[in-house]
Amino acid sequence: LNHFLTVEGLPYQLLHDIMDRAEQFVTLPAKQQKKAPLLRGKTVMNLFFENSTRTRVTFEIAAQRLGADVINLDIRTSSTAKGETLLDTVRNLEAMNADMFVVRHEHAGTAQFIARYSAPHISVLNAGDGRHAHPTQAMLDMFTIRQKKGAFEPLKVAIVGDVLHSRVARSQIHALTTLLTGEVRVIGPKTLIPAHIERMGVKVFHNLDEGLRDVDVVIMLRLQRERMAGALLPSEREFAKLYGLNEQRLELTKPDSIVMHPGPINRGVEIDTEVADGVRSVILEQVTNGIAVRMAVMAMIMGGNTGSAA
Ligand code: CP
């Protein structure tokens, strides 16, 4: 039991344990943070088969602060381009004494696949697989909400936009429905909300103004065009008009609401610049919190107490 592949099914207390551990890294003075050598002598390999800025860099910083050696495999110049299979790549990296793989891939289930077929001492962390899951993103989002709002239980949280193609939304919904007794709303056009999503314990709105009313937290999502091949979709201009968050619409939420976005943002599409850079935005704090949360997950895996989360 040494992987972190999904938040689905993780118990309430474990989610809080991860956040408590992250809190320790946040409150630790920077100098000491860099010297918490829980991963000294370990080799962490970042295998990003899909593009990333926030996740890859914060995983790298987190691993370095824990004292690990970090290797970023450049997939574009690796032998993957010569036709080497995923499993052969993994086996060769294992032969170089890898201890942990951080995996992002366009196909759902890739991190699980690597976890299943890699050597028993290897830990695999899912850094995003297709539209399936992005568990550390969900945990840093939960950590940011806890930091800003204290208790989860009474909150109303709205997730807005392209939920259909979003691994982030799926992981957030799993975490939020475990943590809060308030209300998790998803808001978007019918074409971008998965069928039967109510079964995940959320309330669906197709009208943004109705869905935003009195919420404590608004999480905006971008249109994930890279996963939309062939789908009939609204133009960016139409989408912005119906589902873009602007200052006027933000007034419908609670006066102390916060605005979140996993990034990358598309200014003027799902979110206006005034809101993205406004006083209620915690978007860059989410990015900063990614370091502490990823440190927490890696530290707990090395301590052997996260469960498999597989
Ligand atoms: N939130 C997120 O996954 O961003 P990146 O794609 O830049 O890693």
TrEMBL record:
L-aspartate binds at K82, R167, R222. It is an enzyme of class 2 (transferase). Gene3D superfamilies: Aspartate/ornithine carbamoyltransferase. It comes from the Bacteria. Coiled coil: none annotated. InterPro entries: Asp/Orn_carbamoyltranf_P-bd, Asp/Orn_carbamoylTrfase, Asp/Orn_carbamoylTrfase_sf, Asp_carbamoyltransf, Asp_carbamoyltransf_Asp/Orn-bd. The keyword Membrane does not apply. The keyword Transferase applies. Residues 155-300 form the Aspartate/ornithine carbamoyltransferase Asp/Orn-binding domain. GO terms for molecular function: amino acid binding; aspartate carbamoyltransferase activity. Residues 3-147 form the Aspartate/ornithine carbamoyltransferase carbamoyl-P binding domain. GO terms for cellular component: cytosol. It comes from Thiothrix eikelboomii. Pathway: Pyrimidine metabolism; UMP biosynthesis via de novo pathway; (S)-dihydroorotate from bicarbonate: step 2/3. Catalyzes the condensation of carbamoyl phosphate and aspartate to form carbamoyl aspartate and inorganic phosphate, the committed step in the de novo pyrimidine nucleotide biosynthesis pathway. This is Aspartate carbamoyltransferase. Heterododecamer (2C3:3R2) of six catalytic PyrB chains organized as two trimers (C3), and six regulatory PyrI chains organized as three dimers (R2). It catalyses: carbamoyl phosphate + L-aspartate = N-carbamoyl-L-aspartate + phosphate + H(+).
